Amino acid sequence: MSKVGNHLELLQCLYLVQIKLDGVTSELAPDNEMFMARLLFVLLLVVLGAPVYFLFFKSPPSAPEIDLDEWWGPDQLKTKQDTSIKPFKIKFDETMIKDLKDRLKSHRPYIPPLEGVGFEYGFNSKQMNSWVKYWAEEYPFAAREQLFNKYPQFKTNIQGLDIHFIRVKPEVPAGVQTVPLLLLHGWPGSVREFDAAIPLLTAVSKDRDFALELIVPSLPGYGFSSPAVRPGLGADKMAVVFRNLMHRLGFKKFYVQGGDWGGIITGNMATLFPQDVLGYHSNIVFSMTPRTTLIQILGSIYPPLVVSSDLADRMYPLSQKFSYLVEEMGYLHIQSTKPDTVGVALTDSPSGLLAYILEKFSTWTKPEYKLLADGGLYSKFTKEQLIDNLMMYWATNSITTSMRLYSETFNKRYTGLKLDEVPTPVPTWLLQAKNEISYLPGWIVKSKYVNLINETIVNDGGHFFAMEMPKFFAEDVLKAIGEFRKWHKQNNIKTEL
């Protein structure tokens, strides 16, 4: 957005505020009250004028320099790098299964919940016995192992890290182009989130002149991807790893999609590698800029300044939204500061891991589920699906290393890069679910993603959208990529893959 556009945007906001003040004070009738209201408004402009001007009209930062070869693995591997791509299969070994069952069966008695509560205090301990019994005695390990291996999987070493990924390439008829899509999960999810969406995304249709080849990796330190051995592997550094993965696979240009950490990492890829990323689809909108914060605060005075009335409840009242964030973000503070401490407990206790992760699948799917005794976990998911996801953490002993991503990203180094403020030309498409933790109107997002093509507003769904509503998710992603391709043609941008 140009500086002139920003000026007009701010003036419009201020004009609307004054109209609102006029409307409010006119009901009070006395002239002195009108005068005082106008005086208060002028004083507000004087007090906020300088910082507002600074936040809205300063030149945006540039993208930082990037080290494409930064090494995250053991030093001894650096001299004998293996760039091969090897087939991989998941194997639940009998020793691991026996140990897991023994731990599940030998837990101490759970402390009873308070009377009349659901999930307000966290995972309801009355629900624990049924879940633990299922995992230890009924979960079909062999059958689920086969399901885990339904799609072709591989490993390759990128910057010292063995990266695990699913790769699905459809068979296409003549005249249909295969285009690559990198699909990234977040925490506490895994590649299992996309299981039902994969066949929908890779389906060939007579209505499309393209079909998707999917690359679905486990994030470093998650599942079957190895973790860094030294500090610093934040979301921006993971963006480099996945750019290098796509290049390793022969894709110089590609599309990206992500939610949660996956959305942040793919957003960083679009910012750092706009020449490589052909389009960015995300089902989470996240911004930590002072400008965004100021707009949200101004909107709390008069929401129509910021958001349409039918969506205002997704942002306001701020007191309610901040209260919800305080209630739900305790985990984030722990994992951003002391991930290894909580990791000890979760690594040692599978029932603890179950409670810690499944509680997120309850309240992040729909906030009201916390009022239910079973947390609403059966509303959108099956027990098999949820335990499958737990197995990605338990079988690989990766819960501690997964949580380190928070401490490696929510820190001075990462925030100092100001990546949320770097304008990104990559065509962008947002999917904003009703119950996602955050919501931002498209016009705010457009100051960052200047070629925002569309935002799909959904009156259902939550944080784990691809797992909750795979058909809707796949259709939206395919529609977005179709529009990205049209956008490239209209703007005469080369998209050779």
From TrEMBL:
Pfam families linked: EHN (PF06441)
Domain of life (superkingdom): Eukaryota
Location within or outside the cell: Microsome membrane
Catalytic-site annotation from UniProt: D260, Y406, H463
Keyword set, alphabetical order: Aromatic hydrocarbons catabolism, Hydrolase, Membrane, Transmembrane, Transmembrane helix
Topology with respect to the bilayer: Single-pass membrane protein
Primary localisation category: membrane
Catalytic activity field: 1-(4-methoxyphenyl)-N-methyl-N-[(3-methyloxetan-3-yl)methyl]methanamine + H2O = 2-{[(4-methoxybenzyl)(methyl)amino]methyl}-2-methylpropane-1,3-diol
PANTHER family found in the cross-reference section: EPOXIDE HYDROLASE, EPOXIDE HYDROLASE 1-RELATED
Entry annotated with the keyword Manganese: no
Family membership noted in the UniProt record: Belongs to the peptidase S33 family.
Stretches that traverse the bilayer: 35-56
The organism of origin for this protein: Papilio xuthus
Listed EC numbers: 3.3.2.9
Domain Epoxide hydrolase N-terminal stretches: 85-194
Top EC group: hydrolase
GO terms under biological process: epoxide metabolic process
GO molecular function, one term: cis-stilbene-oxide hydrolase activity
Annotated protein name in UniProt: microsomal epoxide hydrolase
